[in-house]
Amino acid sequence: MNFTSDNTEIIAEPILNAILKANKYPVKSYGEDEITKKAKEKICDLFNIDAEIYFVTSGTAANALGISSVTPPYGSVFCHNESHIHLEECGAPEFYTGGCKLIPINGFAGKISKESFASAINDYPSDKYGFKPSCLSITQSTECGTVYSEKEVTELSSLANKHSIKVHMDGARFANAISTLKIKPSKITWESGIDLMSFGTTKNGTMSAEAIIIFNKKISKDMNLRIKRSGHLLSKMRFLSIQMDSYITNNLWIDLANKANSMAKYMYQELLLIDYIDIPWKVEANEVFILLPKRIEKKLIKLGIQFHKWSKIGIKPLISNDDKEFIRLVTSYNTTKNEIDQFIAILNDINR
Prior knowledge:
Layout: H1 13-22, H2 34-47, E1 52-56, H3 59-68, E2 75-80, H4 84-87, H5 92-97, E3 101-105, H6 114-123, E4 132-139, H7 150-162, E5 166-171, H8 174-181, E6 196-200, E7 210-214, H9 223-229, H10 238-248, H11 252-271, E8 287-293, H12 294-302, E9 308-309, E10 324-330, H13 337-350
Parallel strand pairs: 2-3, 2-4, 4-5, 5-6
Antiparallel strand pairs: 1-7, 6-7, 8-10, 9-10
Helix pairs in contact: 1-10, 2-10, 8-11, 11-13
């Protein structure tokens, strides 16, 4: 039973079939093929904007390359203190920018508030020899499985704009956010002030395909060179492009996210009935975070239940003692109600 991450899931069948179909004949290399052109056009249609789009193989590459396009070596990037770019990308944003400074901002349940962002800007002003505030990166849905509203994104973007700070969105689980918000992708991105984003698909059914979408075309004139220099200009680009094409065709990406989210919400409702488990915030996407006794956590590990142990930094005010562990449970489009029922049964039985 594996609730570690949606990254562990198999490729969605329509996407796998599309890859096999694209393997039937030769096409032009390095993204000059019709499959790539069509996929980019579809993404522009999806977001209702003529954007610049680049396909890469990982979310880390999408984040780091995107951020580097708006952040000089002497620039600073504001981000959540639990964000992927801060904790889990091995300094990639710093590397690709040539030395930028990440400024982490505390925020409950994975979110940066307008007030905390304003405070961070004031705490790190740019003087003659200081780091230049260059980018705000927010994650949608967040690392904690919560979702920024359209209003929240607009407020953050407006504040960033006042200080000439560009706004990047890490959309590794963007589909899960759209599934929850039930709005057009444009509403929560460029119409809310987002300059560029990492459009993730790998966690939601593809093999390995991410897109850098640049909504504000004024900000990057050399992304093609950054892509090449980083080793992400694939000679057989069509195999990334066909994944993207299949992913958004017939609303597959939302159908997959709907399934993942519904399973997380079902798990959440069942977990609320177990008295020894604490849930610090409501589930909004496909990640469930719970506090449970350490002895229970150890028993789950022995039984082969897989999950991810999470940092307690963001919930310290909620912890009265140190006898509990904080863990993350992630559902995918392939998670079944039966798996969750088995998990809940184990949790109920394990405490008897």
